[in-house]
Amino acid sequence: MLKSLQGKTVVVTGASRGIGKGIALRFGEAGLNVLVVSRNQAEADGVAAVIGANAAGFAADVSTAEGCEAMAKEASDCFGGIDVLCANAGIFPAAKLGEMTAADFDNVLTTNLRSTFLSVSAVLPAMTAAGGGRIVITSSITGPITGYPGWSHYGASKAGQLGFMRTAAIELAPKRITVNAVMPGNIFTEGLEGMGGDYIAKMEASIPMRRLGSVADIANAALFFASEEAGYITGQAMVVDGGQVLPESLGALEAI
Question: Domain of 135: which CATH number?
């Protein structure tokens, strides 16, 4: 069992829905103070209300330095410091090469990768003052390991996060700040609810465990990286995908 994190403070970006919401809820269950960050104040407040008195919602555009600095200030003002950052904010619009514009590419890289850098930069003063901290980045198997048509910009942003993570981990280790990443496979979120049973069944068929992951699966991995027990782990990426990247073809799954 992990040692208690009760009373520590986590900032979760992109926390109003999907994986980010699941992370915020799980950290709240573990007794942490949670700053729920979203571009939409009402949605952030809604998640904070579910967590309870130890949570607050905050609206910020974390693709801007101003938004990230305001976010860090709010966490320190509300809870007295920052112990954990879950850099989860991200978008994944589809656009194939030949149709994708420079603006499409820049929007995804700015929202997914630039926000990671800016969020980390903003929380460093509070973590340094506290004598250490934990940074957990939500990357993906798409980009670092796999590819998918229409997501070349998304894949580039997720691979870029891991490149950032490795050097950040070296630089921040003397400050007792660890930097790690969770790499989700196919996860069941609100975005899949309207896709229908056939679509979901096809996704499940490519996964050895024959099910989509849950947001709780990712949240639990993030919670481990935030724990005292993970204090000697830094610069590492954990794949959480039910074995999705293992088969060399669908034939490998049919063989079992």
Answer: 3.40.50.720
The owner of tokens 């950052």 is 85
CA atoms of 134 and 120, how far apart (whole Å): 10
Task: Give pLDDT tens digits for 33-43.
Answer: 999 999 999 99
Task: Give domain status of residue 133, yes or no.
Answer: yes
Under DSSP, is residue 108 helix (H, G, I), strand (E, B) or coil? helix
Split into its structural domains, the chain has a count of 1
Q: Which residues contact 242 (CB under 8 A, 6 or more apart)?
A: 185, 207, 208, 209, 211, 212, 213
Judge whether 250 lies within some domain: no
If DSSP codes are grouped into helix, strand and coil, which group holds residue 196? Answer: coil
Query: Which tens digit of pLDDT belongs to each residue from 131-149?
Result: 999 999 999 999 999 999 9
Cα 136–11–8 angle (5° rounding)? 90
Question: Annotated catalytic sites, by residue?
Answer: 154
Position 183 in a domain: yes
pLDDT tens per residue, range 160-212: 999 999 999 999 999 999 999 999 999 988 766 666 778 788 888 889 999 99
